[in-house]
Amino acid sequence: MNNLELFSRIKNLPLVSSKLVDGFLAGNYRSVFKGPGLEFDEVREYSDSDDSRFIDWNVSSRLGSPYTKTFREERELVLFLIIDVSASLRTGTGKVRKKDAAAILSSLLAFSAVHNNDRVGAVFFTDRIEKWVPPRKGKKQVFRLVEDMMDIKPGGRGSDLGHAIRTVYESLHRRGICVVISDFRVPPVWRELALLGKKHDVIALKITDPSDFNFPVSGLIELKDPETGATIFGSGRFRKFRREYREFWETNDIFWKRECLRRGVHTLSVSTEDDPVKELLKYFSSRRTR
Amino acid sequence: MITFDYPGFLLLIALLPPFIFLRHFWKGRGGRLSFSFTIWEKEVFKPGIYITKFILFSGSFSLWFGILLLMVANASPSIVTREKIYMTRGIDIMFVLDESPSMAGKDFLPNNRFEAAKDVIKMFVLGRDHDPVGLVSFGEHAVLRVPIGLDYEHFLEHLKDLQLMELGNGTAMGMGIAVACLHLDKSTAKEKIIILLTDGDNNAGEIIPESAAYIAAAMGIKIYAVGLGGTGEVPLEFKDPETGRIYRGMYESSYNEEILKELSDITNGRFFQALSPGSLDTVLSSIDSLERTEKRTRLNIKTKPIHRELILIGFILILYDFFLKKWIFREVL
Amino acid sequence: MSARPDSFLLFFILIPVLFVLVKRYWRGRSDLAAIGGKWRSGLLMDVFFIKWFFSSLFFILFVIFSILALAEFTGSGRITTESSSGIDIVFTVDISGSMLGTDIYPSRLKRSVDMISALIENLPEERFGLVVFKGSGIRIIPITEDFSAISSALPYLGPEMFSSAGSNLEDGIFTALNSFTAGEERKKIILLFTDGESLSGSTSMSAEYAKDRDINIIIIGTGTDSGVELYTKSGEPVLDEAGEIVVSRLNSMLLRNLSYADNITYLDISAPSVLSDSLTIINQQLESAVVFDQKETHYRFFLSVAVLFLFLYISVRIFPWKNTF
Fold first, then answer.
1. Distance between CA atoms of B67 and B89, rounded to whole angstroms?
2. What residues 127-166 of chain A have any CB closer than 8 A to a CB of chain B?
C-alpha cells in the first residue's frame, strides 16, 4: 500500500470515527478511561428549575439562602499519541506495513478525540524524538498529524521508547490519555510506563504482523534487520527454525502483556492483517462490558 | 615442485579478499531482505541452526576455494620433477657370502660373523650410487641369490632373509666364485668385482678356488677377498634351518689365508683381514673407496601440467556450492 | 581440436543446473511474496527477476566456459623428443590355478613361459625382470642384464610357488611398476600374461599410474573364449560349490577394455603372430627415440572468461539493486 492509498483511506476515517464516537465514545469515553468526571465550578443562588440534589448545604446554611453547586462540563481531555516510527515498523508480510497500520490506528484515535472536541497531540520517536506535535483541537490538527506521519523521514533507526515516554511525562502536565503505538521491539520500559501511568491513562497498542509469530515456510534467504543491520539466515524450510522463531516471539509477547498489566497499562494487539476499525471497536466494547 | 608459466596471473588472487568481504561482511551488500528480528538494544533472535550454518559455511568455503583453484590454474601450473640420469655405467659388484656353520662364530660381538657380514654389506650397498649389485651365497653348494641389478630394495630384502646353513654344511668357495662369474658374464659393465666374505677353507664343490679365480681373471673380474675372524677357539651357536635344532660349541677357527691371498693376487684384487666388527667396517670402506668411478649424470626435467586437475576440482567445488544452496537449501537468491 | 573431447560430456550438467535455476525462479517468487510482504511485491518481483536473470545467465556462462577450458582446445604444438638407451621389460605372469588350463597347448602357463624365453632370446641387449602374482604380486627377479637368472627361474613358475588365493591383477601390475629402477633413460614395458579369470583389484588406478610414468603395458591374453575344465595336478577335476567341474575361460572382454588406454596393448597368445607382434611393439619403443608433441592448449582464455562470469555472478548478488535486496 503506497502513501496515496493510505491517505485516501485515512480521509475516509472521520466517518468511521464518528461511528466510533456515536456508538459508545460519547459518554462512555470517560468511563472507559476513568477520566476526571464532572468538575465543580461555583455556587449560585438556587432557583426553582434547579435540581435539589445539588444544593450545597454548607454554603446555604452559612449564607442563609439556598445555594446550589454548578458544574462545568469537565475540562477537555488530551489524547496523546506516542508513535513509533522506527525502521522495524517498515516491514510486514501483508498488504500493509506495520507503519501503515500504525498510521490508520492513530488517525482513527485522533479523529475520535477530535469528534469529541478533545485535544490531540503526538510524538514520533525512533531512538530519538523525531517530531513533537503539541496537543490542539480541530480536524486540521488531525490532518496535520496524518501528514506528519506520512512524510516523516526518521533520522534514527532504532526504537527508544523509554526516552519518548520520559519526554512525554515531563512535558505533558495536564492529565490525559496516552496511547503508545509501537511494535514494542524496544528495550524494557516498565519503569517509564509505570511512571506515565501514575499521571495519565496509558494504553499500549502493539502492532503485530502474522510473520511476527509464524515464519513463512520458504527457501533460504539472508535476512537483514532494518534497525541494527544484523544478518541471519532465514531458513523457513526447517521446522526447528520456525519453532524457535515462534517460541522466541511468543515468550516475548506474553512477557510484554504481563508486565504492562502489572503496571496498570491496558494492552491491545492489532495485526496488520486485521481491520483496525473493527479491532478498536471490539476492544472498546470489551472494555465497556468489564 | 610447482612452477607457473604465467606467475603474474597469480596476482589476480588479490581480488578474492575484497570480494569475500563484499559478499559476506559488507554492511551494504545486497541479497538480503529487510525483516525485523531484533528487539532494539535488548535481544536478537538467534536461531540455533548450527548444523545448517556449518553446511552453509562449507558451501561458501568451497565456492571461494574453487575460485582460488581456478585462478591458480590460470597461471598455468605444472609439477616439475627432476630425475638424475646416469650417463655412465656403474661398477658391477657381486657379493659372495659364506654361509657355512662356522660363520656362526661369535667373535664379532654382539653378532656372529654372518650377521656382521650382512650388516656391512647392507651399509656398503646403501653407500653406493647407481652401481649394480648381486648376491651369491655358498655352503656346500653355491647359489645366486640376487642377480646383478640396480634394485637395491630387492637386494636388501633378500640379504636380510639369508640364513646360515641353508646350503648345507660345507664351504664351496670355488663354486661361489664360479657362480658369481657365470652371472657376471652377461653384464655390460666395464668393471666388475667380486667381494668374497668367508671364514673358512674350501672344502666342497667341484671347482677349486684357484681355477675359479682364473676364470674371473680371464673375464676381467677383480676379487676382493675378506677373511673373517681370527685364529683360535671361538664359541659357536646356530640353529639348523631344517631341523630347528640349536647347536652350541667351540670351534677352532682358521681360514686359509693363503688361498684368499692367492685369489686376490690372481685377479688383481686385494686381500683383507677382518678380526673385529670395526675392522670389517674399515675393510669394506676401503674397498668402497678403491672402487669408485667418476659418474657423469645429467638432470632430466619433466614438467607435468596440472591445470586440468585444478580446474576440475574447482569446478566441482563451485557446483557443490551451487547445488547445495539452490537445490538443498532452496536459496531464494 | 579438443584434446579432451570427453569433457564435452560435462555439458549434461547444464540440465540439472537449468532445472534448478528455473525452479528457483518460481519458488523464489512465492518465497519473496511470503517473507517480503505484499505491500512491496511489485518492486520485489522486478528486482528479483532482474537479479535472477543475470545471475542465472552468468552462472550458465561460467559452466559453459569452464567446460570449454576443460576441453583443452589445442593450438600449434611444440615438438619434444625423448631419447632412450634401451628397454627394461618386466614379465608379469599370472600363476593362479586357472593358468594350468590346457586349452592352450601345453598349458596356459607353459606357453607363457615359452614365449618369455623366446622374447629373451630375441632381445639380447635388453634388461628383464620377473614378477608373478596370485592373491598378491611378488618380485621374483629384479631388473637385471643377467637373463640366465630369469631363464633359470622360469621352469619353476606355477601356482604352488606361494599360497595366496585369487588373482590380484592390480597388485601384480603395481609390483611390476615398482620393479623399474630410476636413474636411467630407458623405455619401460610390462608384459603381462594373464587369462583375466576372477581378477580382483581395480586396474584403472594402476593403468593411470603407468601412463604417468610413461610405462607401456602389453597384455597377453592366455586361454580361449571357449574355456577348459580345470584339473588339479593329481588329475582330479576342480569342483565348484554346486559340484560342477570348474570351466575356466579367457576373459578377453575385460582385458580388451583395459587396452583402451593408449599405453596398453592387448594381444592373444593363441594368435600365430603374437611373438612378432610383441617384438614389433617393443622394437618400436626402442627405435623411435619417442617423439611426442606437447601441444599448447587454449584453456587459459576460456578459464579467464569463466572466472570473470563467476565474479559477475557473485557481484549480481552483492549489488543492492534499488536499495531493495
1. 49
2. 127, 158-160
